[in-house]
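Annotators were shown the component list below and the corresponding predicted structure, then asked to write short factual statements about the assembly.
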Amino acid sequence: MIGTLAFASLVRHRARTLLAILGVAVSSAMLLDMVMLSSGMRESFRGLLLSQGFQLRLSPKGTLPFDTEATIRDADSLVATLRARPGVQAVSPVLGGQLHFPLASGAVTAAALGIEPAVQGDYELVAGRNPSSANEIVANDALLRAVGRSVGDTVRAAAGYDAQLRALSGERLLHIVGRVRFIYLALDQRAAALPITTLRAMNGSELDGRASVAMVRLRAGVDVERERAALERLLPRVTVISTNEALKQVDERLSYFRQLAVILGAVSLVVGFLLVTTLVTVSVNERIGEIAVMRAIGVRRWRIVAQIVLEAAAIMLVAAPLGLALGLVTARYLNSILARFPGLPERIDFFLFQPSAAWTALGLLAACGVLAGVYPSWRGASLPIATTMRQEAVG
Amino acid sequence: MSATLEVVDLVREYRMGDEVVQALKGVSFTVEQSEYVAIVGPSGCGKSTLLNLLGVIDRPTSGRVSIAGERVDSLSDARATEFRLRRIGFVFQRFYLMQALTARENVELPLAEAGQAGSERRDRALELLDYVGLRKRERHRPSQLSGGEQQRVAIARALANRPALLLADEPTGELDARTGAEMIALFERLNADGTTIVVVTHDEVLARAAKRVIHMRDGLIVGDERTR
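Structure shown to annotators:
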């Protein structure tokens, strides 16, 4: 019966209730987006870093992977040392560099990754195959478009290019054997991968025996942090970073995003709360006579409270699914805008939907709905019965 | 006959700014079981204040009110609510039915509050609607009922938990003469069936129907006559 009365009170002013629901839905959408934003990039990075199963990354001492142009010297012996460890399943050395592709209209420059094709973890093959010999290369769509080539074609590439002299160095004819998508690179960034030995050879003695990063995949059951500490002790000339460490670094760099998300999320929650409190307070004020009569005929105080809180919670709970749907749509749209931010890996999402985000938003909204009903219900339940009825009778 | 209602030296003061207004200045009377009492007097004489105190929706400044042997003038809010629910039936001038509920649901409201099971309270509500002649209107909402019908539903609601005392505040105040006469007849029937009734009214016809009339003026009882 309390449910009937709460429902009736909401439908008594349909337009007003509908507007409140829409208002709360918008604020719920914003809340969900902010909850998604606060954890989205972090979780997206985590997924990215763990996508190929490498838990540790070794980079030149004092640097983060690919944060500078510094390289690890004598990388081959380092890789051999790593591979000899019982807990290590695979090691993938990567050398970062550039390739220049001379065309009639000028040279196209692209990022180049020197890899060991059998253990690489930097790209996903879309078509063709991995390089299996020295002069084979795989490239992404952006590069293939820029050089006007496709899988099966050959292309001339050089490690160095002097734009003023239009002179190439470390030139080589490469056979394109695969079309790939690079995991850690931006979608529109031209890039290619080729055997690390080929990239080193094209760069001459400068990069001989060097690697930018070595990624390590551990065997199942091996304690990642313990292995990381052991490697740092064993290899003092490199920095060893685990996925968790990398995420901590990401967390520090993304703290602005999180703060922004928390503040905007809190604001949207407060807006929703105030909206519902106002609506329910107005509704209670309109029927104080009815409430006083209910109290006079023996309806207990807590039932009045329950009825009014139910009204507030109902608005929130009806608005929440609408808000969640709206939040997903807007998150998708905003994500598509932010994904165009230069230099971001294709797979990074700013707004990552996770069921936990939806549950968090829903829980906050439900709690907010209950709280929004507290003031008007307290007001309704504490009305002086005789005075209220007398005033209503006069009114 | 035992006293259903006992009022002793009841005083009710209101503070209005710096001024203290005495709405009741020491009222005493008793009402026996199955009595039908009308309280009459000019506007502002304290009738409604007295009714509020008898109905345990207000507290006296001093004095004592006992209903069915229980002191009710200083009950806690929770106890007063419980007492009103089980021992007092209210009929208001403006009916005050819940507009969202049907006639039957309005009658069921105090039954549900008293914890009666669904089928039991449905049967009781129908029995009461039958008693007031509205059995066929059980599914109608207040807006679909005439003033007289709404008041009859309100009476059925007031009787739901078999109260010791039925209190009515100007029950014919919003009704035309013909419907008012029907209501008076209903009150007489209720009383004949054993219900103790105290009615506050300006309506001389309704007052004449009561077995006893208490006259009030300026917060005091100035007359108490048995008409039958």
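Statements collected:
1. Chain B has one domain: 3-226.
2. The interface with chain A takes residues 48, 52, 55, 57-58, 77-78, 81-82, 84-86, 88, 90, 92-94, 96, 98-101, 105, 108-110, 112-114, 157-158, 161 of chain B (CB under 8 Å).
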